[in-house]
Specification:
With 440 residues, the protein is mainly beta. It has four helices and 29 strands.
Length: 440
């Protein structure tokens, strides 16, 4: 069998994971999947011993990534490290790994365990997930962001939760820090590739020959033939983003489906879907076969302590049925309807968690009513008025108010900070007819 000092002899540092020591770090808000430990005692240096088949390790080829003084891009853009497995025979047949679970009291979102493909061939992640009840999805660390002291965590410098991609058998989701979709996994897990899972019970995960593939060993990325959509939310100001995926397949339902629905990641910015009753916060949701009448509630969360403009767009769209349909986004707070097939949607938000803020649907109906619905929620009173003009908006913020006389001349302009209720003193106006323009 291979040992740490055989195959990883030239590596600067090898870390082994102890699931029983994992407690979520409080800097990551509850409500999303978290891999950040509270005090760094879940990973410990592995100086000698056997490399157990199926076990996942963190391998640091060079010292830069764990040097506390390091806080910048790697000194060399691309470095290749050869790892040679020369001991014993190639793994074949059933290989099992024990999974540890240390209780929902301290880990309401499950206990991380780290595994690896033990074979000299790629394996099918979909078969791995469907064959093991303890695995609902797999997570890959994409190494997109250099460790930094600016990233919250227990260490002097920390890695970003936004560098994790995931795959759950229905579809893959790119890492939040990926500006494109190049990190979207399709579930092909290459030889010796490590990955994480979140366990909600103790037991055993088994690898077997039914999972092995004869192709695809050079990549984790490839297209699939399912109806699915990936939505992206992004704030250009701080270059933060998040993704949410919805897939449609024969085995899926509108309820919570094991091995097909996955919780969102606790990234700085998150877009996620709910079940039809408004429960759950899903980074990937699997629904029944595509039907244009389906409506999907969506939520949004941001940890950024600033009022920012965010943009929601379609990151990717696959499948003949959904590709030929319109994708409508309804902002349930502002009553705004956007056809994402034609244009992106922009909105502003402060820090917070906003469940049910949006709805995704694929055909127009009565909920896609006229813009007069918005005007019904704005009142100007008394009408006719004298001395004081009151403006009340029940569901949408007012940004500015302009007053014009009967000849079209602007008499007054008032800018406000997203107010829903304001008053204007018009006692100095001459008697006459005036037009009030309200900008939201």
């Amino acid at each position: 069998a291979e040992t740490r000092n055989d195959v990883f002899s030239s590596s600067y540092n090898v870390q082994q994971h102890t699931p029983a020591n994992f407690i979520p770090h409080p800097s990551v808000p509850a409500g999303g999947t978290n891999f950040m430990d509270d005090n760094l005692d879940d990973w410990n240096e592995y100086t000698s011993g056997t490399i157990t088949p199926g076990e996942g390790f963190l391998v640091y080829p060079q010292s830069a990534y764990i040097d506390p003084a390091y806080n910048g891009p790697p000194p060399v853009s691309t470095i290749v490290f050869d790892l040679t497995y020369a001991q014993g025979t190639l793994n074949n047949g059933d290989i099992s790994r024990s999974i540890e679970f240390n209780g929902l009291g301290t880990n309401p979102d499950g206990t991380p365990n780290f595994l690896a493909n033990p074979y000299a061939s790629a394996i099918d992640g979909s078969v791995l997930v469907s064959s093991n009840p303890l695995i609902n999805e797999v997570y890959f660390w994409e190494h997109l962001t250099p460790p930094s002291a600016a990233i919250p965590g227990a260490n002097i410098i920390n890695v970003s939760m936004g560098d994790l991609s995931m795959y759950n058998g229905t579809m893959g989701m790119p890492a939040a820090n990926d500006p494109g979709t190049s990190t979207t996994p399709n579930g092909v897990i290459s030889t010796a590739q490590g990955f994480g899972i979140k366990a909600f019970g103790s037991g055993t995960v088994t690898f077997d020959n039914s999972m092995r593939l004869t192709t695809g060993n050079s990549t984790l990325r490839a297209p699939e033939n399912l109806d699915k959509i990936v939505l992206k939310v992004q704030a250009e100001t701080y270059e933060v983003r998040g993704y949410a995926g919805i897939g449609f397949r024969p085995e899926g339902t509108a309820d919570l489906d094991e091995n097909m629905d996955s919780n969102r990641l606790a990234t700085l910015v998150s877009l996620y879907s709910h079940l039809e009753d408004g429960t759950e916060q899903l980074g990937i949701q699997t629904r029944e076969p595509f039907d244009s009448s389906i409506k999907i509630p969506m939520g949004f969360a941001t940890q950024v302590e600033a009022d920012l403009e965010y943009t929601i767009s379609i990151a990717s769209l696959e499948g003949s049925n959904i590709s030929s349909s319109q994708i409508y986004l309804i902002d349930n707070e502002l009553g705004i309807i956007t056809d994402l097939s034609e244009t992106d949607y922009q909105f502003r938000s402060n820090q917070g968690e906003f469940n049910g803020r949006f709805t995704i649907q694929f055909e127009p109906d009565n909920t896609l009513g006229s813009k007069s619905d918005i005007l019904d929620n704005i009142s100007v009173y008394p009408n006719p008025t004298r001395d004081i003009l009151n403006i009340q908006s029940n569901s949408i913020s007012v940004k500015s108010v302009e007053v014009y006389d009967i000849q079209g001349r602007r008499v007054e302009s008032l800018s406000v900070e997203d107010q829903t209720s304001l008053s204007m003193n018009i006692s100095s106006y001459r008697s006459g007819v005036y037009f009030v323009k309200i900008n939201t």
